[in-house]
Amino acid sequence: MKGIRFYVLMVALLLFTGLMGYLFGVSFAYKISFKTENAPWFVYHSLQKQTDVVLDTTTEDQLRFSTLLSDKKTRLEWSFTTAPGQPTKAEVYVFPEGQMLSEKLRVIIGQSKKVHEALAMVETFYRAMQSSANKYRWESPEKGELSASRCLCQKVNTTISKKANQMNRNIDALSFHLPKGEKSPPRLYINSIDLAQQTLSFDFCFQVPDDFVFQGEDPFLFVTDKPAVQGQKQTFYGNYNESHRSWFNVIQAVQHQGKTLSFPMVEVFYDSPFSETNDVNWRSELYFDAN
């Protein structure tokens, strides 16, 4: 009987210690965990299109940022850790602003509306992200080289999410000035990417003959000699609106190697959005180097 009482007392003490530790020793009210094949910067990109994101920490294997729920009173702190060849591990910490202790008590009895809202938001976001991933795929990087070429180009500064839209807006102006029968696959010479702001600068280009001289009057078009890119190539299949998905994985892989991505990196598009083919099979190739 004494043994049973001692056991009950120890269990009660452990429960009490755990309860006190949670109520007064843990800074957050709840933690949500999941894994994804997407790179952390893609998750950041996806959330930034929906809400305000505050960047906290970025290292070669960790990314942390915060968002607010729609009530503007509950902060979600997103933490992502990565390792080469492994899925991204995500942890989302729920911080109810200004009422932590009472909210923790509601969590214990399963009555926390804020935690339920956070769970619903993260689950909806996760399902949408995973569902859309079925429409795209990319191959592992392999050795690749893109030769130097003379190009007719237009410089564009935009957000990553509007990259394809900007291409569609400018492709007719570029195509109009190309020599007849000389339309090669369009190229995107990516000169810089701001991951925090999710913006980029690129030259949208078509190859032209070495003796080509631009005779148009459009002040935004120019002819230039683009250097070769010697390094690696990653092939992407899917709608060009989302080809930046593979960029984020390339960036993550380069960071794991302790290297710095060299610019420009170049994306070449081999299928036309006007071809009426299934966009799941559209192919583009990203050429890049790192040192």
Polypeptide structure, described:
This protein is α+β, with helices and mostly antiparallel strands and 291 residues long. It is 31% helix and 33% strand. The strands form two sheets. Strands 6, 7, 8, 9, 10, 11, 12, 13 and 14 form a nine-stranded antiparallel beta sheet that branches. Strands 1-5-4-3-2 form a five-stranded antiparallel beta sheet. It is elongated. The protein starts with a helix and ends with a strand. Mean pLDDT is 84; it is low at 6-16.
The arrangement of helices and strands along the chain is: HEHEEEEHHEEEHEEEEHEE
Mean pLDDT: 84
Distance between the termini: 70 Å
Give the uncertain stretches in residue-range form.
Answer: 6-16
Number of helices: 6
Number of strand elements: 14
Helix content range: 25-40%
- In percent terms, what proportion of residues is strand? 25-35%
Could you tell me the radius of gyration in angstroms? 25 Å
Largest sheet, if any? Answer: 9 strands, antiparallel
Summarize the helices and strands and which ones pair or pack.
Elements: H1 2-25, E1 30-36, H2 40-48, E2 54-58, E3 62-68, E4 74-81, E5 88-96, H3 100-108, H4 113-133, E6 137-138, E7 142-146, E8 149-159, H5 163-176, E9 187-194, E10 199-207, E11 221-226, E12 229-237, H6 244-256, E13 265-269, E14 283-288
Antiparallel strand pairs: 1-5, 2-3, 3-4, 4-5, 6-12, 7-12, 8-10, 8-11, 9-10, 9-13, 12-14, 13-14
